[in-house]
Design goal:
This protein is α/β, with parallel strands linked by helices. The chain contains twelve helices and five strands. A five-stranded mixed beta sheet has the order 3-2-1-4-5, sandwiched between helices.
Length: 335
């Protein structure tokens, strides 16, 4: 057998030569060689066993010379025409110019003109102690999930409740303050009725004199309460993203016969997230490692030593003995 001429060839030079010298019909030759009858007929008609050249009969180079490329780039940047208009305008001068050759020379996009786009602003940095709080519905028997997440440390705290009202919102705030080892300065919430009065009632004398129960709870704890702008859910995006993370890891992956397994899974997931989940935005630290690092820099912001709340055998705030060793991946708790 001869060598295969190219990767798509089904015959060799020897097979082609045998086909050309054979007197058998196409069907028998195709069956013997294991190829299509059309392939046998093609080689029967040819006098050579070499493949015919492929490609255009008259090769045309689309490679631009240095002068042509410089002229095109200057024309494009000077006129700021769209790419197709630029192509049609220059084809009379450069007949072999194609659209792909324009793209290869890096001028498929117009250069940025100063003033076209507003300058990107760097996000304002905040110290730890700014928490975003929101309430979402889990769908597991109409449970409601309160989520609080620190803007800077990404420390998360959650609580499942049966009803979303002012009483549960105030209770969640108290539990959040007790769980965080540093002073909470600002709490940002949406405009839900459990967090604030309706916009049309906020300026009334009763609302001003009485105040919303959640606002009173914040004042008692020396916390500033801020509201997000109505119909702007992206201003509370960190809570929305944390809600999706929890939903994807728990509610969407498991079916719960009752609420107790959901509460157990949620508690374990949040513990593993805070103590074992390394985040890119924190430069590879876990939320609690970041908190401990800030404690060494700004101890005046802290109420207690955060190391005392670390889970494990060295936990002085909890029970002694074998503790929970946080894994590198918090999702293992929900598998």
């Amino acid at each position: 057998m001869g060598r295969v001429l190219h990767g798509s060839a089904t015959t060799t030079e020897a097979v082609r030569r045998a086909i050309q010298h054979s007197q058998e019909n196409l069907r028998l030759l195709a069956k013997r060689c294991g190829i299509n009858q059309k392939t046998v007929a093609k080689w029967k008609k040819r006098t050579s066993v070499a493949d015919l050249p492929t490609g255009p009969s008259e090769p045309k180079s689309t490679v631009l010379s240095g002068d042509d490329a410089a002229m095109i780039i200057a024309f494009r940047r000077h006129t700021l025409l769209p790419l197709d208009d630029c192509l049609y305008s220059l084809q009379a001068t450069i007949p072999h110019l194609t659209r792909s050759s324009l793209q290869r020379h890096g001028i498929s996009r117009l250069p940025d003109v100063e003033g076209d786009k507003p300058a990107r602003k760097k996000l304002k940095t905040y110290p730890i102690g700014v928490f975003y709080i929101a309430e979402v519905q889990t769908g597991e028997g109409k449970l409601y999930l309160y989520i609080g997440i620190d803007r800077t440390s990404k420390f998360a705290f959650t609580e499942l409740v049966n009803k979303a009202n002012t009483a549960t919102a105030r209770a969640f705030l108290g539990a959040l303050v007790a769980a965080v080892p540093y002073k909470i300065k600002i709490v940002v919430t949406d405009n839900g009725s459990q967090f604030a009065d309706l916009p049309r009632n906020r300026s009334g004398p009763t609302a001003i004199w009485r105040g919303h129960p959640f606002d009173r709870a914040c004042q008692a704890l020396d916390i500033e309460h801020r509201l997000t702008k109505p119909k702007h859910p992206w201003t509370n995006g960190q809570v929305e993203r944390m809600n999706r993370t929890i939903t994807d890891a728990a509610v969407k992956r498991f079916h719960y016969d009752d609420h107790d397994p959901l509460r157990t899974h949620l508690k374990s997931f949040i513990a593993a997230y805070n103590f074992g989940r390394r985040l890119k935005t924190l430069k590879g630290l876990t939320p609690y490692e970041f908190i401990c690092k800030r404690w060494t820099i700004e101890p005046e912001r802290f109420i207690i030593d955060p190391i005392q709340q670390m889970p494990g055998s060295n936990n002085r705030a909890g029970t002694s003995g074998a503790g929970f060793a946080p894994p590198a991946d918090p999702y293992w708790l929900l598998r």
